[in-house]
Write a structure and sequence with these properties.
The chain is of the alpha+beta class. It is built from two helices and six strands. It has a four-stranded antiparallel beta sheet. A hairpin with a 3-residue loop joins strand 2 and strand 3. The protein is globular and about 45 Å long.
Length: 133
């Protein structure tokens, strides 16, 4: 993750949360599909163009997200309420007492809004890392 992202108490409705945005790949290929495994030989076939990344970043910022691009995906950060409004979901945020991990669960599959459906394949909430001593 980018060093600019703040680690906040995600239990609060006003705290920021993050997700990974999987961009639509070139030539209608899917990074999320199991049809063809990603390998070092074919990964370039899935890299979005700089124009595609820049366009998607602009759209996500216009919706109110902070956006941190990488070569294949984007990390978006926003308030819980923003995610719920844009992606038409309800989020539950809780902490696993045993290992102190924050869990984020959506009540249903994320709906990609029409303003993003031509450039975004999927949005996923990545689990918080678990550290061992």
């Amino acid at each position: 993750m980018n060093g600019k992202i703040k680690h906040l108490d995600m239990g609060s409705a006003t705290s920021s949360i993050s997700a990974e945005v999987i961009l639509k790949a070139r030539e209608d290929r899917s990074m999320d599909s199991n049809e063809t495994p990603l390998t070092s030989q074919n990964i370039e076939n899935y890299r979005p163009s700089k124009k595609h990344i820049d366009d998607t970043v602009g759209r996500l910022k216009k919706l109110g997200f902070e956006v941190f691009p990488s070569d294949f995906t984007l990390t978006i950060v926003g308030k819980k309420s923003l995610f719920e409004k844009v992606f038409k979901i309800k989020l539950a945020v809780d902490e696993d007492e045993r290992n102190k991990r924050i869990n984020l669960r959506a009540d249903k599959e994320i709906t990609i809004p029409p303003t993003l459906s031509d450039v975004v394949e999927k949005v996923v909430f990545t689990p918080q890392p678990q550290f061992f001593t």
